[in-house]
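Standup notes, protein team

Yesterday: finished cleaning the Bacillus aerolatus set.
Today: Alpha/beta fold hydrolase structure.
Blockers: none.

Input for Alpha/beta fold hydrolase:
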Amino acid sequence: MKKEETVNGIRLSYEWSPHPDAAGTIVLLHGFLSSSFSFRKLVPLLTEQFSVLAVDWPPFGASEKPKRYVYSYENISKTIAHLINQLTSGPITLAGHSMGGQLVLHLLKYHPGIADKAVLLCASGYIPKAKKHLIAASYMPFVDLLVKRWLEKSGVEGNLKNVVFDQSLIDKEMVNGYSLPFEKRDIFLGLARFLRHREGDLTSEEIHQLKTPCLLIWGEHDRIVPLSTGKQLAADLPNSCLEVIKKAGHLLPEEKPEETAALIKAFILGL
């Protein structure tokens, strides 16, 4: 069930599943244009042994999208760190999918003591800051309509076909779940501000400074963030290992939840 908490000046939506005998807490951060809905198959598998916190990080999902908020990785990291400190105690594992993986890396940079371990699921990497003309465009009147039109070119179902290897997995529940956050205008205004405020991804030099043990899990047929990015991240992260799941694309929590959960559990428990 969704809950809300006002943190760092913004109302966050999240799902909190505490376990009475937890071996620690896993914090799940979804990818671009997504929400905690993307973890609906993974969470029940992880809550067998762990407490799980799945966050709709701004400007996505059901979280607030205020004009006053700064949608930079640094500020979003600060917001999530506050929520983690308010709700959890004991060992923490940060787990991020796609752009949520990049957010995990920023959390490790700005809050180095926040997690004992980290998991990167098809994490984005090495993407520069938006070009100046795009940032300038984000200030245009009715920019939200332009963002909406851009997203509608492929549509939710078209985007799902790009991220899922086995197309038969795409059903009405999946399409409706990923469509829901885009039924309100505020998401398009939030995306424009995120484009404006987002820094570039961490450089190889910055990543090399992160000492937290990291597990990288990749889909063999990822067309959004190719396996080559995973291999580069694994080479840059000094304390990491890379696992590849066969016959899977970019959306691992949807496509291969059992294999993904097993790898995460083994990594955390040191099996």
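Follow-up from PR in the comments: The chain is about 40% helix and 20% strand.
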